[in-house]
């Protein structure tokens, strides 16, 4: 579904950066192209659909990532088989929306072989497990070797250690991180030994589910394998990563198969702002904004971008008021 959904307008999709669906673009003077989306204000997740028409799934899809992993998401029935050669150095890039390492390898899941294209960082973690978040999550992005365009991501969580224990792979990755402080810049990592990470991924339980890209265009159909147990990370390495990445975690999405949260919120907002349909109140007099599930449709891209003579800023983006319009914002 991802391959069928995506178009050529993917200058910002670092979830699939480096795959055949979004090939890496170099900038002038050995730099890399910087992402056009972000995590704050009008460039942030609540307005991703407003940045480009092909991002409509960000506000309409009912199978979005990341999610809170609860008892509705099962563990993988078999361990992946992973091969990632150790390297003396790898390209290390600042895309503006994340920092990314270019490496090669393979992961076989359920009889399907996937080629590793890159891994990148999210802080704080995008996925939560039983409501708990982690300081860092690494996404190892793979594309199916059969050319189908299927995407699989190994999502590795990290927890700060109390005794200074750390994952040496990240120490080596960040050896020259100060050289990519500016978005668009490129450097190299130190020597990378993937053996301890591979052992962890092949032995720890992995939650598996079908979700979406966590960055625009938010296309569905991606397979996530999320580690149940985190790897250790010391404060020094975490702070080095955080100082460059800042904050790049998409907010937790609704449960899989349920209405997109932006649709839920826009329905409540339309009801609250419509004089013909005032929001109901609870006994204390406080307005109840969330209506029963299924009563109103999710907004369309046309709803989000509709204009009248009464502009308002809603949901992190400037829209116009459409009085009484169901599913519009």
From TrEMBL:
Pfam family, one: Carb_anhydrase
Reactions catalysed, as given in the entry: hydrogencarbonate + H(+) = CO2 + H2O
Top EC group: lyase
Record's keyword annotation contains Ligase: no
Keyword tags: Lyase, Metal-binding, Zinc
Stretches assigned to the Alpha-carbonic anhydrase domain: 35-273
EC assignment: 4.2.1.1
Family annotation (SMART domains): Carb_anhydrase
SUPFAM superfamilies per UniProt: Carbonic anhydrase
Required cofactor names: Zn(2+)
Stored InterPro entries: Alpha_CA_prokaryot-like, CA_dom, CA_dom_sf, Carbonic_anhydrase_a-class, Carbonic_anhydrase_a-class_CS
Job description of the protein: Reversible hydration of carbon dioxide.
Assigned protein family: Belongs to the alpha-carbonic anhydrase family.
UniProt protein name: Carbonic anhydrase
The species this protein was found in: Discina gigas
